[in-house]
C-alpha cells in the first residue's frame, strides 16, 4: 500500500464543479474548443492550478501546463500527465476532465505530503482534443508532438466558420511559449474507458497498451434538386438517397465482419434541406477505426471503391476530404507494466486493453514513452450526458496515477 492517497473529496468536488461550467440554457454541457465556455473552463482550471501553487504556462496552441519543480530537480525532464477539458456537444462531465483534475490532485497530494521527487511533474490540458469544432482532433497534443505545424493548426477553420487562432486570442489563451513544454521523461493519461469492457469484466483498472487507428473523412455527394411530387423515381439524381446508401454500406460491412472495425456517420446535412425538394447535395462525415493498420487501410479502400461505383450508378459527383488520419499506436510496455504493478499495490485487479477512443496520449507517444490508465464507464456510455463512473472507481484510478507518477519521477 502506498503511503499517500489523494484527497477524494477535493477531486470529486472539482470534477462536479467543472462539469457545471459551460452548460447552456437547456442544461446541456458543451465546451467546444475556443468557445466562451472553453474559456470559462480554462479560467476555472487555472484558478485551481494557482491554488496548488503550480507554475502556469500557456503555449501558442493554447495548451495549459501546471508545473511543479523544485531547485533540486528543475533541470531534469519532467513526468507529464495530461488530458483535455474541451468537450463534445451535450457531453458528460468525465471525458478528459477526470484525467486533468486527477493529475492536478496527484501533484497537490504529493506536495502536501512533502514528497521530494527526482523530477518535475507537469499537468497538461491540451487544446481541442475532441475535434468537434476544429479537425483534426487531439490538435494541441499533435502540434506539441510536431505532427502538425503551429501555423496550420492556428489557421484551422471551424464548422461554424471561425478560425482557431483568432478564437484562442479572443478568449485569452493564445500563449507565447512553445508549442509544447519540454520533452517529457514519460507521459501518463488517466481517462474513463468510454466503453463497456472493464465494467463487463468487473475489473477496476485498465492498463492501456495500444490505441486503434482513426480515419476521419468528409464526403460530399452532388445530385440535382428537383420537385418531390413531379419527378418520377427513375429520373431522380437524389443525393440524399445516395448518402443513405453509403451509411448502410458502412454499417452493414462493419457489422458483418468478424473484426473490431467500427464505422460511424455522425454528421449529415442536405441541401437545400426542404421537405418537397429532392436533395441536390449531401455532406456527411465518416469516422472509421480499427486497431490494425492494414485493415484500416483496407476499409478506407473499400469505402472509396463503393463511392466510385455509387457515383457511376447514380450519375453523381462524389468528393472526399480527409479530416484526420492517425495510425494505431502501441504504448510503452514498461509504463504499462508500472501501471499494473501500481494497481496491484493498491489491491486492485487490472486488465491490459486497447483504447477505442482517441486520446492525447497517442500524440505524446511520438515524443516520449507513454501509456494510459482506464477506469470503468457504467454501461460503456460516453459522449453522452449519461456518462458515469462510480466515485470509488474514480478515486482508485487517481491513486494508481499518483503511484505511477511517483515511480516515474524517481527514475
Ligand atoms: C475523441 O474523443 C474521439 O475518440 O473521437
Ligand atoms: Mn477524452
Ligand atoms: Mn471525447
Ligand atoms: Mn477522445
UniProtKB/TrEMBL annotation:
<dbReference type="InterPro" id="IPR010158">
    <property type="entry name" value="Amidase_Cbmase"/>
</dbReference>
<feature type="binding site">
    <location>
        <position position="191"/>
    </location>
    <ligand>
        <name>Zn(2+) 1</name>
    </ligand>
</feature>
<feature type="binding site">
    <location>
        <position position="84"/>
    </location>
    <ligand>
        <name>Zn(2+) 1</name>
    </ligand>
</feature>
<feature type="domain" description="Peptidase M20 dimerisation">
    <location>
        <begin position="212"/>
        <end position="311"/>
    </location>
</feature>
<dbReference type="GO" id="GO:0016813">
    <property type="term" value="F:hydrolase activity, acting on carbon-nitrogen (but not peptide) bonds, in linear amidines"/>
</dbReference>
<dbReference type="Pfam" id="PF07687">
    <property type="entry name" value="M20_dimer"/>
</dbReference>
<keyword id="KW-0378">Hydrolase</keyword>
<dbReference type="InterPro" id="IPR011650">
    <property type="entry name" value="Peptidase_M20_dimer"/>
</dbReference>
<comment type="similarity">
    <text>Belongs to the peptidase M20 family.</text>
</comment>
<dbReference type="Pfam" id="PF01546">
    <property type="entry name" value="Peptidase_M20"/>
</dbReference>
<feature type="binding site">
    <location>
        <position position="383"/>
    </location>
    <ligand>
        <name>Zn(2+) 2</name>
    </ligand>
</feature>
<keyword id="KW-0479">Metal-binding</keyword>
<dbReference type="GO" id="GO:0046872">
    <property type="term" value="F:metal ion binding"/>
</dbReference>
<feature type="binding site">
    <location>
        <position position="95"/>
    </location>
    <ligand>
        <name>Zn(2+) 1</name>
    </ligand>
</feature>
<dbReference type="InterPro" id="IPR036264">
    <property type="entry name" value="Bact_exopeptidase_dim_dom"/>
</dbReference>
<dbReference type="InterPro" id="IPR002933">
    <property type="entry name" value="Peptidase_M20"/>
</dbReference>
<protein>
    <submittedName>
        <fullName>Hydantoinase/carbamoylase family amidase</fullName>
        <ecNumber>3.5.-.-</ecNumber>
    </submittedName>
</protein>
<keyword id="KW-0862">Zinc</keyword>
<feature type="binding site">
    <location>
        <position position="130"/>
    </location>
    <ligand>
        <name>Zn(2+) 2</name>
    </ligand>
</feature>
<feature type="binding site">
    <location>
        <position position="95"/>
    </location>
    <ligand>
        <name>Zn(2+) 2</name>
    </ligand>
</feature>
Amino acid at each position: 500500500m502506498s503511503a499517500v492517497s489523494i484527497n477524494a473529496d477535493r477531486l470529486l468536488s472539482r470534477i462536479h464543479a467543472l462539469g457545471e461550467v459551460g452548460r447552456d440554457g437547456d442544461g446541456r454541457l458543451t465546451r467546444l474548443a475556443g468557445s466562451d465556455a472553453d474559456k470559462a473552463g480554462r479560467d476555472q482550471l487555472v484558478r485551481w492550478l494557482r491554488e496548488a501553487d503550480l507554475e502556469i504556462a500557456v503555449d501558442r496552441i493554447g495548451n495549459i501546463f501546471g508545473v511543479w519543480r523544485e531547485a533540486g530537480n528543475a533541470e531534469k525532464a519532467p513526468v507529464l500527465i495530461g488530458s483535455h477539458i474541451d468537450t463534445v456537444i451535450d457531453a458528460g462531465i468525465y471525458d478528459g476532465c477526470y484525467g486533468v483534475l486527477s493529475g492536478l490532485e496527484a501533484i497537490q497530494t504529493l506536495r502536501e505530503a512533502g514528497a521530494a521527487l527526482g523530477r518535475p511533474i507537469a499537468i497538461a490540458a491540451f487544446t481541442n482534443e475532441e475535434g468537434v469544432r476544429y479537425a483534426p482532433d487531439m490538435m494541441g497534443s499533435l502540434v506539441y508532438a510536431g505532427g502538425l505545424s503551429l501555423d496550420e493548426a492556428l489557421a484551422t477553420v471551424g464548422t461554424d466558420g471561425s478560425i482557431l487562432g483568432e478564437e484562442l486570442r479572443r478568449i485569452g489563451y493564445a500563449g507565447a511559449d512553445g508549442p509544447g513544454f519540454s520533452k517529457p521523461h514519460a507521459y501518463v493519461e488517466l481517462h474513463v474507458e468510454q466503453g463497456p469492457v472493464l465494467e463487463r469484466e468487473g475489473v477496476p483498472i485498465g492498463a492501456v497498451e495500444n490505441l486503434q487507428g482513426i480515419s476521419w473523412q468528409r464526403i460530399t455527394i452532388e445530385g440535382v434538386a428537383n420537385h418531390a411530387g413531379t419527378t418520377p423515381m427513375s429520373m431522380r439524381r437524389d443525393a440524399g438517397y445516395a448518402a443513405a446508401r453509403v451509411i448502410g454500406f458502412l454499417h452493414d460491412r462493419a457489422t458483418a465482419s468478424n473484426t473490431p472495425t467500427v464505422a460511424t456517420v455522425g454528421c449529415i446535412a442536405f441541401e437545400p434541406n426542404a421537405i418537397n425538394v429532392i436533395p441536390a447535395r449531401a455532406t456527411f462525415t465518416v469516422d472509421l477505426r480499427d486497431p490494425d493498420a492494414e485493415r484500416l487501410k483496407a476499409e478506407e479502400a473499400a469505402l472509396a471503391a463503393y463511392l466510385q461505383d455509387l457515383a457511376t450508378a447514380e450519375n453523381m459527383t462524389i468528393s472526399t476530404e480527409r479530416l484526420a488520419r492517425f495510425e494505431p499506436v502501441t504504448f510503452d510496455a514498461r509504463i504499462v507494466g508500472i501501471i499494473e504493478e501500481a494497481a496491484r499495490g493498491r489491491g486492485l485487479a487490472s486488465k491490459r486493453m486497447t483504447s477505442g477512443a482517441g486520446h492525447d496520449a497517442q500524440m505524446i507517444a511520438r515524443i516520449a514513452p507513454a501509456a494510459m490508465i482506464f477506469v470503468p464507464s457504467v454501461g460503456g456510455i460516453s459522449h453522452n450526458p449519461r456518462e458515469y463512473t462510480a466515485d470509488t472507481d474514480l478515486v482508485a484510478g487517481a491513486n494508481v496515477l499518483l503511484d505511477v507518477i511517483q515511480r516515474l519521477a524517481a527514475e
